[in-house]
Every structure is written in C-alpha cells, then in structure tokens.
Design brief:
Blueprint lengths: L1 H8 L9 E3 L3 H9 L3 E3 L2 H7 L5 E3 L6 H10 L4 E4 L6 H13 L4 E4 L6 H11 L6 E9 L6 H4 L5 H17 L3 E8 L14 E8 L4 E7 L7 E8 L3 E7 L6 H18 L9 H18 L9
Helix pairs in contact: 1-9, 4-5, 5-10, 8-10
Length: 300
C-alpha cells in the first residue's frame, strides 16, 4: 500500500514524498531508484529530519506503536485504515495524538472519490428522497499472502471497515444491529480462523437497511461498488472495476493526502477522524462476534 501511495502522489503539486522507512532491502532498493531517502526504521527516518508529516502504511498490528512514535516527534500523521486492530487501539492512538498536540487523520480514501462525494451530498440534501437501502461491495482479485493476512486482523478488520465507514459516511447513520453470513472454509489452510467471503445485513439507526458484501475471489481484478436506493432515485457508483485499473484509487489517494496537507497547514479537516475509525472497528467487532470469529492472528 505504501508503494501505491507513492504512485498516487507522483504527480501532486502539494505533497512530495521525500523519505521512506522500509526494512526489506529489495523493496528499499526500488524506492531508492525513485529518488527517495530510505531508512531501515521509522526511528532512523525521524532522526534524519526534513519531513513535515508522516503517512503510516505499515501492517495494521503496527499502527498504534507507530502513531505513538511519530506523535512523540511532534509530526502530523495520516494513518492507513483501520488505525489499529480494535476500537480500543484506535481510541488509544487518538488519545496519544491529542495529548501530544499532533493531528491524526485516518486514510479512508473512498471519502475522496468525487462520485461518492456527490452521492453523499445528494443524500444529505434530500435529493435521493427517503433512503431505503444501501449496498456496498468489495471483492479482491485474490486472497492476500499469509504474511499480510496474519497482521491484518482478518476480513472484517481488513476489508469490512472500508464498507462500514462508507455506509456511515454516505448515510449519516450509525449501525444499530448486524446479521452475518460467512462462507465456512478458506482456500489457504494456514488461514483457519478467518474467512474468504462474508455478507452482512446492517440495520441503521433510522430503520433503513444496508448490505455489505466482502470476498477475496474476483478473477481479473479488484471490484468495489456502492449502490443507494431512495424514494426519489437510485444511484450505483463503480468505485473500482478491473477494466479501469487503479486510476480512481490513485486519484482519491492524491486528493486525500492533499486534504491532509491543507489541514496540517492550518485548514479544516476533511477526512476520517479517529472517532470514525473507532466506530468502524466497533462494528467490525460486532460482525466478528456474530460470525463467531476473533481478530485474525491475535491470541485473544
């Protein structure tokens, strides 16, 4: 994901990546070829100075510790979602940032997709009429490697938080109740305790319904979509589809980083807050509980 951010920000006139912390030498060499100063640890990168803010794109189970370390250096932080494996970790990260007087934004990049921003605006102003049903889907091309999966928290903490945040952000509603159906097996025998697909029905606070569909098998490329049914209109947004490549995601990542930079320079916050991150993780935990699962890779 860090390398995806680098591609996204290559054309930005506002944000420039100048350094990276990368412990794997093969990846570090590729980054050096792009003209970046590369350090084996975050501590070394921070000690070298010459950075105005830090983007955290490390595995999820490292988010809290990295927020702590970077906040101690007094730098604003844009942390990849979900900012911890649990709502408690996210809230602790928020407390650390607040105590040390640094800004902390969580990188839910879909909030910066123009078509989704337009849809949210129509919902908020009544243009969709009464909202009846929201559908958000994310199907990856293939399951991730165990090296990633073991540090990600599993399908609900890794993937599901995107859909949860998107539903909350689009509708302006909190989740009141969840019902879950998961496929009982995984293709990778080492991933016992996680699942490869899951569908959830969410009842929102206003009584409307939302469905989130998660899966790890969409041959040809990643698929992300959002669909809203209102009494006045129906809108479907193809956020990502294989035929379009990663262009929409790269644009949204660039817009997100530039919004974060504006906030760091004294502007207003535009992205997801730590409260948003904790709320998404709260619902993810409800989904785990309903499915009889634990945060994958953790000894709870």
């Amino acid at each position: 994901m860090g390398q995806t951010h680098i591609r996204a920000l290559a054309g930005s006139s506002t944000v420039r990546i100048v350094a990276a912390a990368e412990p794997y030498e093969a990846t570090a060499n590729k980054l050096r070829e792009n003209g970046l100063a590369v350090y084996p640890t975050v501590s070394a990168m921070l000690a070298a100075g010459d950075v105005d803010g830090v983007l955290v794109a490390a595995p999820t189970d490292q988010h809290l510790a990295l927020v702590d370390e970077i906040a101690s250096a007094g730098l604003p932080i844009l942390c990849e979602k979900p900012c911890g494996l649990s709502a408690a970790q996210a809230r602790e990260a928020g407390d650390i940032a607040s105590e040390r007087g640094v800004l902390l934004q969580v990188a839910y990049w879909r909030r910066f997709v123009p078509a989704l921003q337009d849809l949210r605006g129509r919902i908020a102003t009544g243009g969709m009429g009464t909202l009846h049903f929201t559908m958000c889907a994310q199907w990856d091309e293939a399951p991730p490697a165990m090296q990633f999966r073991a540090h990600s928290g599993g399908i609900f903490v890794d993937m599901g938080v995107h859909e949860i945040d998107q539903i909350r952000w689009l509708t302006g509603q909190e989740v009141a109740h969840v019902t879950v159906s998961t496929f009982p097996t995984v293709e990778d025998p080492d991933a016992v305790g996680d699942v490869d697909s899951a569908q959830a029905l969410l009842t929102l606070a206003d009584g409307s319904a939302a469905v989130m569909s998660l899966g790890r098998f969409h041959p040809g490329g990643d698929l992300v979509s959002a669909e809203v049914y209102g009494s006045r209109d129906h809108v479907r947004v193809a956020v990502l589809q294989p035929s379009d490549g990663e262009g929409r995601q790269l644009e949204a990542l660039r817009r997100q980083a530039e919004a974060f930079a504006r906030w760091a320079m004294g502007g207003s916050p535009e992205g997801a807050t730590i409260e948003d991150a904790a709320a998404a993780l709260d619902v993810a935990q409800q989904l785990l509980d309903a499915a009889g699962l634990s945060v994958f890779g953790q000894n709870w």
